[in-house]
């Protein structure tokens, strides 16, 4: 996206009717920042699993919801 940000901003300006500088700095620029932010979480998210009854493996759903205490 960074390599083609001017082209993306031009397309966005035509598509949405936004001013080119707004499309470049806000729409495309913030999209790049958002991708970088969430890409950074890929190696930081950790999870755990809970053993469940295997009697009906296709009908069971289990998840862990972590909530702060205190």
From TrEMBL:
* Organism (species): Characodon lateralis
Name the chain's protein. Cytosolic 10-formyltetrahydrofolate dehydrogenase
> Source gene?
ALDH1L1_2
Q: Which PANTHER family match?
A: ALDEHYDE DEHYDROGENASE-RELATED
Domain Aldehyde dehydrogenase residue range list: 1-70
Which InterPro entries does the UniProt record give?
Ald_DH/histidinol_DH, Ald_DH_N, Aldehyde_DH_dom
């Amino acid at each position: 996206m960074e390599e083609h940000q001017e082209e993306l901003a031009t397309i966005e300006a035509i598509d949405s009717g936004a001013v080119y500088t707004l499309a470049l700095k806000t729409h495309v620029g913030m999209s790049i920042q958002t991708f970088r932010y969430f890409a950074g979480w890929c190696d930081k998210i950790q999870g755990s699993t809970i053993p469940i009854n295997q009697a009906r493996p296709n009908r069971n759903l289990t998840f862990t919801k972590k909530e702060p205490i205190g």
